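User: structure tokens for this one?
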Amino acid sequence: MERVSSPRVADNYTYGLVYALSPADEDSLDMYEGVPEAYTKDKVSISIWHAGKQVLDDPGKETATLMYVDRKRVRDGVPKLEYVQRMRREMLEAGEMGIPMAWMRTTFGKWFDVS
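Assistant:
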């Protein structure tokens, strides 16, 4: 597993949502995401520092997660309108779940209007 540093180090953190997947869900997601042609899967160790519903037994403890990575399309480009609309909706939902809108504007504002 790749080691991810503690979010206490300045500028060495990100916000995100973590979901529990059953093996069947993972298989479906693999097919939808085009694994292994379009995306690869990496196991990454992360520290979860906040959960909206406080479902964590031990906040800050390292947890193994699965991350889908596109290693082929790594340059800036113009996203399709359908993708922009979907991502904007998902970012607004993430904001409702506690992801800071200011962080999303700074991070994704170049591509998406997340007002």
